[in-house]
């Protein structure tokens, strides 16, 4: 529903997949959908079919599974993201070898200089956009046919059923929206630990694909049930059905379904927040002392990164539990569940962050105490930290209720625009329901479209922070490979997109 709008700087050529750096909007729920938008939607569906064919051709840069034509060349999401950041940052790379490094899927991150030179040599350009000529389309079609035939011939010789299995495998390769494609182990399914110590444990997430409860799910009851009940009753005090005539409902969605989904999402949110409102209120003025801040600043970068990775990992698992409790999420295939979590969990964390932000003294809750950005000085990521605090401040200005925050988080998490989803229609409906519930809640609270527009306007900033986090993580991994390799397994898996975590002996 939050459909990406193409920008001049990164227009999508025929045959590409949706760009993830665009500003989001909601044309389906707009009061007036123009003919131009309808035409673009029809044209987009045709181009998606072409994109599926183009993906048969491997990435021209590294040989990984491609996702379409990016900057004039067929590439994977990883090489697309690498080239984009190189151009945005005017990066100047150097090669420590002979400037002829082999660039393939396994070692594409080892030499940025040679990777960029290969991108340029094969024709990638930040100003190349528009439609392909007929000659280019014919050439592309011939190449697609060639790859399809060669794949079918190779597979049919070994096993007639291999073609089906290969397609199934390739569709689950690109499980991340963080600028790269990565394969995940079958065990990348985790459950909710409630202590920092347990965040280092690596749980099996096989349960994510089933309807049964997690082994650790009962421990969520450690949250005080009376606070959950009080907060839910406080923020859900009237029925959605009384506004049934005010919302244009898409076909197949009823107000009863929206009401039930709203109740489910808000309840799931309140049950899976790390801190209740009462706990946050008690901790508001519990801050780090000057001595503690100086001690943190004196820590080495690798020690501070390890501590932050641990805290983020613990928070991520609450987001996972939130997702698992949303009605309909567990009905998605395991591939789509993992894609949505990997691509959206950090964005949900950023939304939740404003609960634990004190705008009076510009402090954020970190490991049980409130602190300003100066505590994180030793990370060497001042721009990232400042951006996070600025986002928290701007989100606080919106004064979202817990109910609004829950529904906004669900709508962001359930984004059908994530690459490599198998059933986008199913995800789209889940997001539609969450978005309609959010819209109705805002109307009921007297905020209307103005507040909704402001909330949606924060999405590009959140996306930029997610990309910046990956950039900083990649740089840190290059400087401290052993520390990065010892990050909590869940943290490494969720953010193992552009960043490769090599065993210290390999690096």
Automatic annotation (TrEMBL):
Pfam families the record matches: Hormone_recep (PF00104), zf-C4 (PF00105)
InterPro entries reported for this sequence: NHR-like_dom_sf (IPR035500), NR_DBD_ROR (IPR044101), Nucl_hrmn_rcpt_lig-bd (IPR000536), Nuclear_hrmn_rcpt (IPR001723), ROR_rcpt (IPR003079), Znf_hrmn_rcpt (IPR001628), Znf_NHR/GATA (IPR013088)
Signal peptide location: none
Disordered: annotated span: 140-169
Nuclear receptor domain boundaries: 56-131
Domain of life of the native organism: Eukaryota
Gene Ontology cellular component terms for the protein in this record: nucleus
Cellular compartments annotated: Nucleus
Domain NR LBD: 257-495
Main subcellular localisation: nucleus
GO molecular function, one term: zinc ion binding
Keywords: Developmental protein, DNA-binding, Metal-binding, Nucleus, Receptor, Transcription, Transcription regulation, Zinc, Zinc-finger
Family that this chain belongs to: Belongs to the nuclear hormone receptor family.
Name used for this protein in its record: RORB protein
Gene: Rorb_1
